[in-house]
TrEMBL record:
This is SusD-like N-terminal domain-containing protein. Residues 1-23 form the signal peptide. It comes from the Bacteria. InterPro entries: SusD-like_N (IPR033985), TPR-like_helical_dom_sf (IPR011990). PROSITE patterns: PROKAR_LIPOPROTEIN. Residues 22-241 form the SusD-like N-terminal domain. Keywords: Signal.
Length: 472
């Protein structure tokens, strides 16, 4: 850990809404520049903006932890990189390879996540040190603290979902550290259950600090959808409780978000294939069309872009036969289809006027209710999303007859809804679904758990190192 946490503290020089991408380094050795940065209110706001900007990095949610590596692992694309001949090569975690080179991507994503977490902790440290003196409004101070806590929780939870165990099988397995201090000290690997509760502690505190936003309508406030607002934090709580299989709390928070956030399920994706109007929280990627051109762009010649074959698209979205002109998630507003090449590519990051990378969208709350409610009630929440997407009520699912049937239905719906958003792989892991469309024959549940990076194993916390540091 010492080797690669806090190699530098990066802060943005302008607010997120400015679109400025200039950065400067804050030395962790002297904190001289940090002392200058945190002497003004704008400095604090720039530091927070820097957290969001850094989350759009390729190693974070600008690729690996969103539509990129995770959706490749879920086999949602037919693009296989040069140097690779089979789909199962992406599950080679232990050695460096040509093509996917998943080992490198996992190591870089781990490093990037903890770097952002270190920046969160640095911001929180300076809020404690002189926030009251520099920032006059207590509400503004609360907002800064809440968003830093929420970002820290969001990243730790995704680290848990990736590097932690299948939670329902063994929540006591040690997996990742939960870092709350801005230094390079070695921190112990906590159990999955301990990490989940620390995530919830941060989110509860963030909700308390943002309670002034309870009457906020996100439909009327576009800018707050680009930040961790009150309802985004509550939606993340619902996600965490669902992962933990805590039905009562998952249902409580999901229902509250649906009832009070001001957002509604959209019935069209024309001009908005990423459905930004359903986003409870999203990241803004500066100059998205330019920065995404190597991943999503108009064809018909694709080399590095995340394309899908027409046959796979029709299977995943059930867009054949009588349902070929129903679900708007598979129609021309959602995909550019190239009939001659039998390929298609998602419009989500091509026709995206808001430059939005979704972190949490409203349909997930309906899916949480579908999974966590009693079987006889769950189907209505899936139907609500399906009806909004274009399915007639005559095709509604009457009820979930058993858990296996519910899992099958949810599998198909989550796969369609969150295509190119990085959520489907974690759904598969949560439910230990080891067979899915285009899944290689050798896939097993062990592939859901990412190994610790080599540097973490070599330099991270051990019982011996803890004893040595105590003796100092």
């Amino acid at each position: 850990m010492k080797k690669y946490i806090l190699s530098s503290i990066l802060m943005a020089t302008a607010l997120l809404t400015s679109g400025c991408s200039d950065w400067f380094d804050v030395s962790p050795k002297t904190d001289i520049k940090a002392e200058e940065l945190f002497t003004t209110e704008n400095g604090f706001r720039s530091a927070l903006a820097g957290l969001y900007i850094s989350m759009t990095d390729d190693d974070a949610y600008g690729d690996n932890l969103s539509f990129g590596m995770l959706d490749q692992m879920a086999q949602l694309y037919d693009m296989i990189p040069d140097g690779t001949t089979s789909r199962d090569a992406i599950y080679i975690y232990d050695v460096h390879t040509n093509g996917y080179d998943t080992k490198t991507k996992l190591e870089r994503s781990w490093l990037k996540a903890y770097n952002i977490i270190a920046n969160c902790n640095n911001l929180l440290k300076w809020l404690d040190a002189n926030g009251a003196e520099v920032i006059r409004s207590s509400q503004d101070r609360d907002n800064l603290r809440a968003e830093a806590l929420a970002i820290r929780a969001y990243l730790h939870f995704d680290l848990l979902r990736g590097w932690g165990p299948i939670y329902k099988n063994d929540s006591t397995a040690r997996c990742i550290p939960y870092r709350t201090i801005a230094d390079a000290s070695r921190q112990p690997l906590l159990t999955a259950n301990e990490v989940a509760h620390k995530v919830l502690n941060d989110l509860n505190e963030a909700m308390r600090l943002l309670s002034y936003e309870k009457n906020l309508s996100l439909a009327a406030d576009k800018e707050r959808r680009f930040r961790f607002n009150y309802y985004a934090v509550e939606a993340l709580m619902a996600r965490v409780y669902c992962w933990m299989d805590d039905a009562d709390n998952a249902v409580l928070h999901a229902q509250n978000v649906i009832a009070n956030s001001g957002l509604t399920l959209q019935t069209s994706n024309a001009g908005d294939p990423v459905l930004f109007n359903e986003c409870l929280c999203a990241l803004n990627l500066y100059r998205m069309s330019d920065n995404m051109s190597a991943k999503f762009a108009e064809g018909p010649k694709f080399t590095t872009q995340y394309y899908i074959g027409t046959q796979s698209l029709n299977t995943i979205f059930e867009s054949t036969g009588t349902s070929s002109d129903v679900d708007f998630r598979a129609k021309s507003a959602a995909f550019i289809r190239y009939d001659a090449q039998q390929q298609a590519i998602s419009r989500k990051y091509i026709d995206n006027p808001n430059g939005a990378i979704p972190l949490i969208r409203l349909p997930e709350m309906y899916y949480i209710l579908a999974q966590m409610s009693p079987l006889e009630e769950g189907a209505k929440y899936v139907n609500a999303v399906r009806n909004a997407r274009g399915y007639s009520t005559s095709t509604n699912i009457s009820e979930f007859f058993d858990e296996l049937y519910r899992d099958d239905v949810m599998d198909a719906e989550v796969r369609k809804e969150f295509y190119a958003e990085g959520q489907y792989f974690f759904f598969l892991k949560q439910h230990e679904i080891t067979w899915f469309y285009n899944c290689p024959a050798g896939f097993s549940a062990e592939k859901f758990v990412f190994p610790l990076p080599d540097a973490e194993i070599e330099y991270g916390w051990t019982a011996d190192s803890a004893t040595q540091e105590t003796d100092k």
